Amino acid sequence: MQVATSPARVRTVWRMGWAIVWLVLAMVSIDFLLTVYGKYRHLDAGAYALFWSRRGWLWTHLAGGALTIFLGPLQFLTRWPRAYPRLHRWMGRIYMIGMLIACAGAIGLIATSPAPFEIRSAFAATALAWLTTALTALIAIRRGRVWPHRRWMIRNYLVTLSPITFRLLLQAQLAMGLAPSPTMIATLLWLSWLLPLLIHEGVRRIVDLARSASTHRAAPVAPN
User: Fold this and answer.
1) If you write DSSP's letter for every residue of 25-67 in order, what string do you get?
2) Tens-place pLDDT, residues 127-181
């Protein structure tokens, strides 16, 4: 009896783990939105600093980014996508539009940025990863492949959260007394989406192996 229920236990642990992860991400995302968007709510050159002359591109990027950060959990954490597939598709389209708006703003910011090339190239790589994961997910669902679509959208949302991850990594570096340099900032920009993707793939692989082992143990043994 204990062996037979092990796959269910693996699923329960997996769901609880994801629930905790999403709860933490939601709390961090809310704090990020309140801090960053609160900083730019007043049209003040001092608050905008280097973004003052490019505030149009900045707000284009922030507007699209806020839309994707908000809509992502609604797509993953609720049961209504299965109950209301048409609503899920429309929400997905709005998410994609928000992502494209944010990418348009990002391109404008990169093109007008006075930052060193290594930082601008790191920003460009993030935008490319964002678009690539979304395109792969879109192709998958167009072909009727629901689970690959879901997995690629999870990867896409992890890239969506890269500004939040970057902020956390930067704060950790500053807490260790390390002064931000162009090389360090570029490295953190790369890690802000590569590290979550690597962790996600590693955890998913471990869970898949655990499920496979549990199913194998629970399978009846054929008589000789």
Assistant:
1) HHHHHHHHHHHHHHHTSS--HHHHGGGGGGHHHHHHHHHHHHH
2) 999 999 999 999 999 999 989 998 999 999 999 999 989 988 998 989 988 888 9
**Which residue in 64, 87, 77 sits closest to 26, CA to CA?**
77
Cβ count within 10 A of residue 194: 17
Q: Which residues contact 36 (CB under 8 A, 6 or more apart)?
A: 62, 163
pLDDT-based confidence at residue 110 (cuts at 50, 70, 90):
very high
Whether the full predicted model's pTM is greater than 0.85, yes or no, is no
Q: Which residues contact 104 (CB under 8 A, 6 or more apart)?
A: 60, 61, 64
The answer for residues whose C-beta is within 8 angstroms of residue 173's C-beta and 6 or more apart is 180, 184, 188
Cβ neighbours for 72, distance < 8 A, ≥ 6 positions apart? 95, 157, 160
Write the secondary structure of 71-97 as one string of H (helix), E (strand) and C (coil): HHHHHHHCCHHHHCHHHHHHHHHHHHH
**Measured between alpha carbons, how far is 1 from 139 in angstroms, rounded to an integer?**
42
* Distance in angstroms (rounded) separating the CA atoms of residues 170 and 192: 10
pLDDT per position as a tens digit, 3-48:
444 566 666 776 777 677 777 777 777 778 788 777 787 777 877 8
At position 176, the amino acid (one-letter code) is M
